[in-house]
Model the fold of this input.
Amino acid sequence: MPSTYLPAEDHVVRYVPWARLRKDEDDNVIGVLGAAFRLRDDEDYLSATWAEYFAGSHADRVAAAVRAVRASKLKVTPRSGFATGNVNGIKEACLADKGRHKIRIVHERADDNEAHTALRGWPRDNEDLLNLLADGVWSSYVLNKDIEL
Amino acid sequence: MDAIQIQKLRPDAGAIGRTSVSFPSTGTSITSQFIKQKLDDLAAPTPSFSGIRIAERGLDEELYDALAAFKIRTAAVSMHLDRNWRARLFGQLDSLLALSDWEVEDAPPTIDSYSTFLRMLTLLRPQRRPGLGAASHGSLIATWTVGDDRLTIECLPKDIVRWQLSATIDGERERAAAETPLPRLAAVLRPYDPGRWFQNAQHVPAG
Done:
């Protein structure tokens, strides 16, 4: 099957555990940490969910992506969140970095998440870039508790 | 919470109901061994219950042990931390390491990372507590945020910190990042007016 690259104007939604949400000193969530976009040692690509795979308004699509992740094998915890980023914004930010990372954002349907997307060519050991994404093009977030079942 | 309080008990779920079943001597009959096996089977959790509980109990214990170690280590430097400040920090640690929100694949923050974190607090002496986070491989992350001005410090073992900041200075947006030995952290942050993050009063930019 040919690869489906996500259109530039579309969005990807990434699950962010409680420990990778940016909080103030009273535990109020105020953003996402760059560490939320860090690859684990055994990961070859960064996983996300394609929002525009679903129908509706932008908010409807993000909510549908959240529900798709909840329905997958991933354990979604009560205080976790989901970060939403624009495909072109992410690719441009990675390309503009001194490492000139050429990212491929590919729809790779999974058994437990039809909208699963792989961000391939994702940089390792580039904390500055990950923090830049978390402060900029991938900083929009919703909390799990705010999305209805 | 004040001083050192570890709020959880650790019942050994796997042992419940099993202590009354003793091993028979080698001279027991086949019938006795059969009965013993049946009793063992009755006392054992169902396969599905067992699978979940063993996994959770392991993680629960790891988080509990980490939390206990952090609080004990904090007590060693308690003279440097205000009582109320310390109590609230403990509340943040309880929250960060809560089993219900912990990512199963993550390693709890290590005591080496926490030691760096504690030493950083005693060196910087911030009035405002940091927000807390953790990387998947066991590093504690401290953050201070005032509006769009952000300071993020990942505490690595052996008094090394990986820091990153973005701030508006004299109307210009600046970003900086580096890995620094802890004793030099205050000096490398000084040009960025770190008081904007560390002081309780609302920061008012110059000009």
About this structure: Residues 11-27, 41-54, 202-207 of chain B have pLDDT under 50 and may be disordered. DSSP finds six helices and five strands in chain B. The longest strand of chain B covers residues 160-169.
